[in-house]
Design a protein that fits this description.
By secondary structure, the chain is an alpha/beta fold. Helices cover 37% and strands 24% of the residues.
């Protein structure tokens, strides 16, 4: 078994304590769920965290796999350029995935976006210190992202790598009138449906999600979750939604997917 654990984690910078400050209490369910899942991650035996971000160098025809030896990130875009945080990469795994998947391309990127930095904050704060393999999403059909995820897991198995896969995912950005992308009643409909599908571990339901509803909701969750589902394919999985809330007009879900 190459994939030892899967997680769906949101990426709003406001849940970073130094950024959110007093407003962090408005997302307390999310914070507590992230602390809980980070403890679970700390207890797992694995070699590398693979994290799929919808805010990286997004691909149009292929999935960008970050193949650098070291990565650096901070929250300068949100007023906090220091400290910069360094993470060790896993270029051997990354290059092997690119070699094995016609859907992937190598990306010699070293700078991490908030879609990576925010989900990694809580495990790092809990004492998790492992190499990472960032992967950006591509705007290709969800079933192809699923196939890429399968190849990712198969490659890790060949290299005898135990990996932990994190889908960095925010839900609808249109839940309230003051939401970042404006309001749509379809926002809550999308979030309710996706939470239900994850709870039931309905893989086909997610891969065949209504694209019109997803587009109207203004989401960036389905791409990364599809990669995660592919990585878990072929194993029985216990799926648990630890929290869901939409305190700032954007839906945040934290879920643990245990093979």
């Amino acid at each position: 078994m190459s994939v030892v654990f899967g997680a769906i984690m949101p990426h709003p910078p406001i849940i970073i304590p130094v950024i959110g400050k007093n407003r962090l209490k408005e997302a307390d369910k999310t914070r507590r769920a992230l602390e809980r899942i980070s403890q679970t991650i700390k207890e797992r035996d694995f070699d590398t965290i693979v994290i799929i971000t919808p805010h990286g160098r997004i691909g149009q025809a292929s999935v960008p796999v970050y193949t650098s030896h070291v990565f650096e990130g901070n929250f300068a875009d949100f007023g906090y350029p220091k400290p910069s945080i360094l993470y060790k990469g896993d270029p051997a795994l990354g290059l092997a995935v690119v070699k094995n998947s016609h859907l992937a391309s190598a990306l010699p990127e070293t700078i991490l976006d908030h879609g990576v930095m925010v989900p990694l904050h809580y495990p790092t704060a809990a004492g998790v210190s492992k190499p990472i393999l960032p992967v950006a999403v591509a705007f290709i059909p969800l079933d192809k992202l699923f196939q890429f995820g399968k190849t990712l897991a198969e490659t890790a198995k060949t290299l005898e790598r135990k990996i932990l896969v994190v889908a960095s995912a925010d839900m609808s950005h249109r839940l309230t009138p003051d939401a970042p992308s404006g309001y749509s009643p379809k926002g809550k409909e999308f979030d309710d449906k996706l939470v239900s599908l994850v709870e039931k571990y309905d893989v086909q339901g997610i891969l065949n999600f209504d694209p019109a509803l997803a587009d109207e909701a203004g989401q960036d969750a389905l791409w990364s979750i599809s990669v995660l589902l592919g990585a878990l394919d072929g194993q029985p999985v216990k799926s648990e939604v630890l929290s869901y809330e939409g305190p700032f007009g954007v839906g945040y879900m934290v879920a643990a997917l245990q093979p």
